[in-house]
Every structure is written in structure tokens, then in C-alpha cells.
Amino acid sequence: MFRVLSWSSCHSTTWLRLLSILWVGLSPCSSVHQHSHPHSIKIPGDITLGGLFPVHARGHAGVPCGEIKKEKGIHRLEAMMYALDQINSDPELLPNITLGARILDTCSRDTYALEQSLTFVQALIQKDTSDIRCSNGEQPIIRKPERVVGVIGASGSSVSIMVANVLRLFEIPQISYASTAPELSDNNRYDFFSRVVPPDSYQAQAMVDIVKALGWNYVSTLASEGNYGESGVDAFVQISREAGGLCIAQSLKIPREPKPGEFDKIIKRLMETPNARGVIIFAHEDDIKQVLEAAKKSNLTGQFKFVGSDSWGAKSSPILDQEEVAEGAVTILPKRASIDEERISRDSHYEQEGKVQFVIDAVYAMAHALHNMHQDLCPGAMGVCDKMDPVEGRLLLSYIHSVNFNGSAGTAVLFNENGDAPGRYDIFQYQMTNTTNPGYRVIGQWTNNLRLNVEEMQWTGGSRQIPDSVCSFPCRSGERKKMVKGVPCCWHCELCDGYQFQADEFNCEMCPFDMRPTLNRTACRPTPIIKLEWHSPWAVIPLFLAILGILATLSVIITFIRFNDTPIVRAAGRELSYVLLTGIFLIYFITFLMIAEPGTVVCAFRRLLLGLGMCITYSAMLTKTNRIYRIFEQGKKSVTPPKFISPTSQLMITFILISVQVVGVFIWFGVMPPHTIVDYDEQRPPNPELARGILKCDIADLSLICCLSYSILLMVTCTVYAVKSRGVPETFNEAKPIGFTMYTTCIVWLAFVPIFFGTAQSTEKMFIQTTTLTVSMSLSASVSLGMLYIPKVYVIIFHPEQNVQKRKRSFKAVVQAATMSSRLSQKSISDKQNGETKIEPDRTQ
């Protein structure tokens, strides 16, 4: 079919040369028409469609148009003309009706496109020409401009928005083949706008799904200033916020007119959050290319992993000479089919790409709407009937929204109530290694949900490992997340220290008092329970002393029993000696109860015997020293013996003193029955691995001191009497050993108190206290045994002749000795007062 090009009457032999003449405006015979319709093509027909294509790039320095855009401009324009050819030659679609076109250049600039699009509405603007006359006075013949029933385009969202605001005023339907801004889905503002590509809201949802499938939760966004970039990023941010689990590190914008060094600043800004390696980019081709150049210039190849929108798609121009930086980039593109070159191209010089599919689908959508409208309004009519002359725009819009046919890709072309096409995307990745032909590779699809072949993805250097783009890495076991305020994807990991365990992702809690955390601090486990073992170093020394003491005590008892009626044994006071030896034996024996495994019976005997052994020992010693003291004091005054000095009386006094201790212990039994406890506080150091629960009798330190306090009182009282009896003649030598015993015992127990209470903060407090107590008791018992009875046993065994010579002294002899001692003391004092040193013999003798 022959085409008439209104802006030039010159016919060229090749389409490429013709396009060059048309768009660049070099034809000498085009100047007249170019003045009225610059950068336009007119194709006559029964019904005229408008077309908007970015044949030229945006100009610089005040020039509206720049260089020719081959892929996004010439190829798409040619696709529309191809579609018109196909439709006009199809006997089933719009039979006997020829579609024409008025195609305009937008020069990739919204303001210029707005000026150009006024051409589409000229026929709808009523002009008053009554006052216009030719030079001869006749009324001019003004050619009425063609009426455009619908517009195919535009490409950029900002251009489509600008044009849509004008076309809706004149109710001219518009179908875009590339504009994806989400705001164009607003049916109240852009009710006459439709598109065969899905809006960026679908694209943004697909990109959110891709980011999540890669395990990323911290990304930056980069947008070209304008409707496409900004609305795309806004949609991505909104969807990611609603979905949760995805945070935006930075949202950067590329100015419309970037200054020198602007892209270097953008890369520097992106590096302020180096963990956000994923960069979501909604930008124009030129901006994408310069971003990659700036990253390469900064030696950051491989640092950023880009997820590009459909403006990047599978194009080669943005990554030309920047392949290393772009490696691993994941891009998205509306699902399309490759159109055979011979089916679309009027000139084999052009390499057609899949993007022309949407141009063809847009033209066919308009044609199907007109076809259905013609069948309803002009049934059986040949050509356009009166009801379609002119075509009513709002009615045509309803037919556009009702179309449903298989497009050039084999997929259904249809529109929802907002004029949007369904979301169907191919997911690409740019790969350089391990492929025969480096380039874009399809790795998945998105149709309301994502299907991504992760195993087919490759990253820098051919790595199959998905790079990280997270603000914070997962915390290890036993660590809780401390969230960064205002950034839900960022946190600091804090170890659950001490006796805490990780209760959940964000909280640590203390283990119960009888438990400690596991090694990974994810739960609590029972604290090991220990007791003082027989083989423990803390038990060996007390046991050794106790065994020696018991053997020595038994030896003394056996010796005394064997030589029970000998002078030495009788002079030592057999009755009280046996009582005293019994107490010493119990002091040694208590060591075994202190080390034995605690139980109710053991704890009961501990309470009873702990103070009883000392009480028996010091009660007998007190009775002895008191008897000696009273005898010598009474002997100084008269020859009448004091009361209660007989063996029976001495035993009664001793047992009365002992009964006080026994009664107190049984009262203690009644108030607090003996039982065992596990003490978890005693061995609870900062390191929970060293924590132990100690099985012991329920005897507090204060209770222990109270239990021993009566014995200590007896010991102090006995010491006082020992001091008072220090003047007894050497022939009555039992008082002096008792005195020395009490002095030594006091020193031992004075040392015991600070050692016992000084271990309060020790991790082995119970063991040290037990050892200190048993050793102190054993030492005091050993001193008593050694000073009072070991010498007697030695004499009995190794010097039996002295045992025969000893006789029990009568009270009369004791009185004489006491009287002599008293007079000698008085004489000495008198001589000192008179300055004399001579002692006269006592005549009373």
C-alpha cells in the first residue's frame, strides 16, 4: 500500500534514508510543512490514530532534541507502521476500513511532547475564520486537520502524564506501550489512559519478591528524577514497608540535569552504607550507564548488586564497556516474545528487539476496539458509517477496556478497570562467565508470584554464592537482638551473660536459681550438686588429724582402764578424766559426721555432737579447775574442806553443765527439725560453668556459732579459773597443764573466727569452713589430750616405779600446802614493802 508523507513530497528509495530525511529535517522540499508540523509523519486513512515516539533523545543547552534513538525510537515507530500494515491487510479485522496515522516525535522531553500533542486536538478546537480574507478579498480555503480518534504512546511516564492531561479534556483515548508509572493507574485523573504494559506497582512487587528471594533485607534505591523513577521507587518502598522485613538504607535521586561529578557523589553516598550491597534502580538508560561508570571509576567493581527495572531490562546500551560492573545485575522486563525481523522490518538494516511487541499490541488493541465498535454501531456497513463519524471517545474507551485477544507474544492482551495490563515479567541476570555467549539470561518469571531459578544465577567471578545485602547478620545462639531505633532490619547482637539464657529473639532471661544456662545459652540446665567428698583435699587433713586423735584418745582410755587403781590414775581424778576423754573422743568423731553425705540422721547427729563434745570436755575441765581453786582458797582460810569436792559431786556438777547444752539442742530440734538443703548461692561465681549446688545440712553460720557459744563460755570460764589457780605449788601440777591447755585453746579459737567468717565470698566456702571447724576442734582436743593425759600415760608405761610412789594427797596436806603458800606470799609482800630481801623461816611449821 502506498503511503503519503505529508511533510515531504519527496520519495526516497529506502526507508532508512527516508527516516533520516524526515526526522532530521534535511530535505530541501520539507521546509514548508515542517514549519507547521515539525518532526511528524502523516499516513492517510479512514480512521487516524496518533502516535508518540522518542525518536530523538533529549537535547542539551536549550536545544529541544538531540541525537536519534535507534532502539527506543526508530524501532518502535517502525513497529507501529508494521502493525498498521498488518491490520490494513487483514480481511477479518476492520474490513474495508483503512487505519491512518499522525506520528509525532517527543524528543524524550515532556514539555516538548505536550506542545507536539496539541496537533491531535486541532480538529476539535473550533476556530472563528470569518474575519480572515485572502489578498483578493475572497474567503480562504482552510484545510481541516485530520481527526485523531486515539493515541498510541507515549514511552516515558512523564511524557504520558503530560499528554494524558490534555487528551482527557477532549476525550481522546490513549494506549501506552511503555509508560509504567503507578500514578497512571489513577482512574479519576487519567481515565482515558490505558497501557499494554503492567504498571510499576506490579514491577515493584516483583522486585520486592526478588530481593526477598535473595535473602536481602537491607537495600538502597536509586531513581532518575521524574515520574518514572520517583514513582517506581515510591511503589517499591511502599510495598516493601507493607510486606515487612525489608529496609531501605538510602533513597537517592539522580537530577534531570546532573552536574559534573554528580554520579561520583552518588557512589560515595551509597558507600556510606556498605552493607546495603543491593541497589534497586529505577533510572533511564543514560543514568544507568553513568552510575556504572562511576562505580568502575571508584574501583568498586563487584561491590554493588543491581536490581534494575524495565528501563534497564535486557538492553546492551546501558552496560556497554561496563560489563564487569554490571555482572550479576538482575533486571526485570515485561514478558514478551521476539518478533521476526522479516515480519516487522521494512528495512533489514534494523535489528528488532522484543520491546516492539508492546507497540504492536497497543495498535492492535486500538484496532480491536474500533472493530468491535464498528460491528455494534455499523452492522453490515462497508466502511465507516455515520454513527462512527466522528468516533465518540468515551464510547471507544469502553470498547478498549473490553478487548481480549492474543497478542504478538501469544499472551492475552486485556485491561483491568484502571486500564492496566496484567503483570507478567521475565527476570534476567547479566552473566559473563560459564556461559557460551556472555549476556542476559532468563532466570525466572513473575506472574502475580515469583518463580526464580536461584541455582542458575551467577555472581562476580562466576560465584554461585548469593552475596549478602543485610544490615545486620543473624545473631549467634545465646545472643539477643538489640534493635536500632527506627531501622527494623538493623540490630546489635548482645550476649546473654551471667546466668541468663536466650528466651526469644529479643530477650534474655535469668535461669531459675537451681539452674544454669547451657553452653549455647538457648536454655537452662540443672546445676550440678556436689558435697564434700572423702577424697577431697579439704577432707584429707581433718580426717588424718581425727584418726590420729581417736587413736591417741583410745590409747589413753585403754591405759587408764588397765591401770585404773594405780596412784597416777587415781590422782588424775578417774571419774572426771573418763568424762573428759569422752568429750575429746566426740570432738574427733564429729569430723566424720561433718564430711559424711548430709541426710536427716547425719544432720541430727551433727547438731547434737557438734557442741556436745566440746561441752563435755570444757565442763569437766571447768569442774577440775573450779575444784582446785576452791580447795586452795578454802585452805587459806580454814582447815574445813569446801563443799562438793567429792568425785560424785564433781560428776553431778559436770553433768548439770552438760545438760544445758543437751536441752538447748533438743529445743533446736523442736523449733527447726534437722533436714538437708541444696545451697546454690554459695558456689555461684560469675562464670556459670563453675556454678555448683552444695548439698548440706540446714545449719546457718549464726546457728553454728550459737551451738558453740555455750562451749566457748565454758572455755572462757575455765581459762579464768586457770589464771586464778596459777599460784598453786608445783607439787600440785595439774592446774598448770589445764591453764596452758586453756591458753592454747583460746588462741586456736580466736584464729578460727576470722578464718571461718573470712571465707564468706569464697567459691568453696562450705569446704573451707568445714575444714577450719574440724581442724580447730581437733587441735583444741589434741592440746587437751597432750597436756593432761599423754604425760601420765608416758609415766605409767615407761616409768612404772613412779606410779607406785604416788599417793593421793589428803585434804589436810592440801591445807598445809595452801597455808604455806599463803604465808610465803604475804611475807614476800611485806619484805618488799620494808626493802628487805631476807625470808625468815615460818615458825608455824
Describe this structure in words.
The protein is of the alpha/beta class and 845 residues long. 44% of the residues lie in helices and 15% in strands. It has 24 helices and 27 strands. The strands form eight sheets. It has an eight-stranded mixed sheet, with helices on both faces. The protein has a six-stranded mixed sheet with strand order 1-5-2-6-7-8, sandwiched between helices. Strand 3 and strand 4 form a beta hairpin. Helix 19 packs antiparallel against helix 20. The termini are far apart. The relative contact order is 0.06. The N terminus and C terminus are likely disordered.
Distance between the termini: 172 Å
Report the structural category: alpha/beta
Mean pLDDT: 80
The Rg value, from CA coordinates, equals 57 Å
Task: Summarize the biggest pleated sheet.
Answer: 8 strands, mixed
Strand content: 15-25%
Helical run tally: 24
Would you report the number of β strands? 27
| Quaternary assembly | single chain
Order of strands, widest sheet: 10-9-11-12-13-16-17-18
Q: What share of the residues lie within helices? A: 40-55%
Low-confidence parts lasting 5 or more residues at pLDDT below 50?
Answer: 1-36, 339-352, 805-815, 821-833, 835-845
Globally, the shape reads rod-shaped
Protein name: Glutamate receptor, metabotropic 6a
Family: Belongs to the G-protein coupled receptor 3 family.
Subcellular location: Cell membrane
Membrane topology: Multi-pass membrane protein
